[in-house]
């Protein structure tokens, strides 16, 4: 089973997320910025690439929703066996955020929370995150975030694994943390945190497999085979190209199976 740990609905992003336009253009996927795909169309693309489940995330930016949790729920209700909801919240209003997270999990059936620090220009150690960490532990869901440099033209400081992810993992050892976008250029810091902290993981979204750092591929072949999750960041990167690239990595069959789906199934309790 292949589980994509980081994807978004296709939602006419050019106006609502202008920061990502340059990334799509550089990746050759700019045509996706002007499209809107429904559940049936998205499942057809998944089937073509052999992707079984999609962790589909909502987006809230300062001041407004881009993709609401209810927008994502349209997909999860249409295909509950194919789409898994990942909640977003308004970080600037912590109490409202906690209530919205609980609603997304208990009423909509979502399996994780994602906050992208660069969008808020607040690192994961900011006090506004901490009530959400408590609620994630109470609900038994992972906290997903972005680590590494910032592709959009925002400061990259918020994506540093050390000290930020390290400190959160020390403060909340029960919290499951999934750092997306491999942490580049601090990937080895993320690998070190996966070794140090039982509940810290990496996903490979936003990078084609041919661009994975050699140290990460080696990590996935050994101890890290239980610590790394496959992700695309769709529609930024296409499913089929990412899946095909994984087959070229030469991972041992057991490690490849864990990477492509086994780890995500365990971590997100799918």
Explain this structure:
- The protein is of the alpha/beta class and 270 residues long.
- The protein has a single domain (3-262), classed as TIM Barrel, CATH 3.20.20.140.
- Helices cover 41% and strands 15% of the residues.
- It has helices at residues 13-16, 21-27, 39-49, 69-78, 94-106, 117-120, 130-139, 161-171, 187-196, 214-221, 239-247, 253-267, and strands at 3-7, 53-57, 59-61, 64-67, 83-87, 112-115, 143-146, 177-180, 200-203, 228-229.
- An eight-stranded parallel sheet has the order 1-2-5-6-7-8-9-10. A two-stranded antiparallel sheet has the order 3-4.
- Helix 3 runs parallel beside helix 11 (239-247).
- The radius of gyration is 17 Å and the shape is globular.
- 45% of the residues are buried.
Short description:
With 270 residues, the chain is an alpha/beta fold. The chain contains twelve helices and ten strands. Strand 8, helix 9 and strand 9 form a beta-alpha-beta unit.
Largest sheet: 8 strands, parallel
| Helicity, as a percent range | 40-55%
CATH superfamily: Metal-dependent hydrolases
Give the overall shape: globular
Q: What letter string, H or E per element, gives the SSE order?
A: EHHHEEEHEHEHHEHEHEHEHH
Low-confidence spans: pLDDT under 50, at least 5 residues?
none
Q: Give the CATH level 1 class.
A: Alpha Beta
Radius of gyration: 17 Å
Mean pLDDT: 96
Structural class by SSE content: alpha/beta
| CATH architecture classification name | Alpha-Beta Barrel
Annotation, overall tally of beta strands: 10
CATH topology grouping: TIM Barrel
Task: Work out the strand percent.
Answer: 5-15%
The total domain count is: 1
Largest sheet strand order: 1-2-5-6-7-8-9-10
Count of helical stretches:
12
N-C termini distance: 11 Å
